[in-house]
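Appendix B: complex inputs.
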Amino acid sequence: MTPAPGSAPASGRAGSPPAGPSADPLDFAEIRRGVEDVLRCFLDERVRDLPHPKARPLVEHLRTLMGSGGKRFRPILCVVGWHAAGGSGTPRELLHLAAAIETFHSAAMIHDDIIDRSATRRGHPSAHHALRAQCTAPPGSDTSTWFGAGAALVLGDLALSWSDQLLYRGRLDIAQLRATHPLLDTLRSEALIGCYIELLATGRHTDDLDTPVEINRLKSAKYTIERPLHLGAVLAGADPAVLDTCTAYGIPLGQAFQLRDDILGVFGDTAATGKPALDDLREGKPTLLLAIAQSRAAPDQRERLRRLVGDPLLDDAGAATVREILTATGARQEVEDLIESHRLRAVAALDERTLPGAAVTALRQMAETVTRRDA
Amino acid sequence: MTPAPGSAPASGRAGSPPAGPSADPLDFAEIRRGVEDVLRCFLDERVRDLPHPKARPLVEHLRTLMGSGGKRFRPILCVVGWHAAGGSGTPRELLHLAAAIETFHSAAMIHDDIIDRSATRRGHPSAHHALRAQCTAPPGSDTSTWFGAGAALVLGDLALSWSDQLLYRGRLDIAQLRATHPLLDTLRSEALIGCYIELLATGRHTDDLDTPVEINRLKSAKYTIERPLHLGAVLAGADPAVLDTCTAYGIPLGQAFQLRDDILGVFGDTAATGKPALDDLREGKPTLLLAIAQSRAAPDQRERLRRLVGDPLLDDAGAATVREILTATGARQEVEDLIESHRLRAVAALDERTLPGAAVTALRQMAETVTRRDA
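Resulting structure:
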């Protein structure tokens, strides 16, 4: 195993920068714990320094959300990216960068749940539902519902703001800041604009296959896989070739990640996903799965899909009908095949270039995890 | 005129740092133009580098909002703070810091208008109204309304994200970043938490005078006056005594600023404010003006206020009745007296310390402007 060319660290600071490629396998559970420790300390401090005591339930909700598991794909990939570019260990600045990405993700989840009217997140009430309890108006009233949405909007804004503060707290040097900050901005802009493109397409019942692929590219491929890898890599001073490999691996894997999500959103087990199985269908989420089904459907199937998908009152019987059509048209199998071919393409990208062995092992493992999960 | 002690710049970079106190009077119009140039270039670039062409109407709306005037109190005060701490000129990093504050303000306005259900901002449709035009669902339908709110939510998130990117683009050195970044974070957290405290109190019909004062402290005094001054001042390496003067001036002036806003919200001329005169009353905004009226009102007046304020269908006749009660109880005059006493207290703070003359002149002028405006 040879070190990746150009993997010299951006920082020359003692202690943190890598000396060479890492040899030990990367322990995802340990990375997760490291990032969670940073987040816990940061949020404890936020509670302590609150500008007004009445805002405490807001931050407590964020603490619960951020402490309630989650798969932490993005922070883990950030650390893997660092190792891919020759970094070693998990220095303070890396864990803070990873925690910044995860904090932005919390903001995005809180705001997404408002837009999607999702009542549940990770098996708990979503922010705009939970925060209704802080309102003195009767539960179920318009005032209470509106209050919950407003409070969750503010909480998402706080989390978005704090994602920057976490990066800053990592005490990156100016070269590291110059390398990471514009890229963190890009990650956020791409994710947000992906969310808008999805909103534009929601409930449109189209067999246009390009739009879901475009949405997945921004909201999943770039946001979930490629950019977190890039961020860790540029922190370690990666050269463009390493970033290209991250892209060649990240874009197909991110597409596969989202396709698995879409399948789980319709066929998944609620107990495992923590998300009601009807949400995606009721919302009319513009997935590739549905677009393929539309394009393959017979006229009567197409008509039934149009009637059922996007119906906010869709019941279990209706959802079962949609599942039957998705299976009967072969759309489900086509998506499963796409997931596998994307995964293979991602893994093949790792063979074209010699990255440090620990990073390659971690990237292979991650490719399994994101495509074959049940939650 | 002697230079403020401790006004040495944080930066030793050639070109930008101050040599001594500024002598020429500060030209607010010129500051405004400088900040607007930075914003225009930044937004042009955002449009050019959009991750997806369909997102263009989002950024175009932001460009229209940010280009449509606005009083630019916060960026101007940021520049005044720089001069108060002995800075000179308007170097690149200062204008970018000021533009970062203004960009956050745009995010806050866009999200505030969603929460307040305001249809208008600066005489134009608010973001969540304007962006409905991008939805293919029939205008006036639930889908179109929900789409507008979701699109505005995303746009506010983009603007919030970009406020950091503007700071970064100013090419501050590491000492300047260490001085300003945590304070920008504080400004944002205080403003957002103030917004939440206001949401908690909205429509409560209380004669509690403390809550509006607390809301005004966070949402206006700190956010609009004190923190922008502090940000400019710390960029120039201000010592704690300069920051204390900014606080002693900023907190009372900010209270006065908000009280003027509350009066304009009820008694103002829509043509000048760009905001329908019924919005604050229909929303039941928890102002000190209304709390004082509640505390002074006779039982029948109190009953009428409870019935009318917060009624989303309030008409002109109802608003006229509220205005009569606010005047008859003496609440309006009491608020006018408070504005004047706060203004005097702010200006008096300037006499207790020798700040550079140009800054003092600007601060006196600003005290007039924010308290005696009609828009």
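Residues 142-169 of chain A form the longest helix (28 residues).
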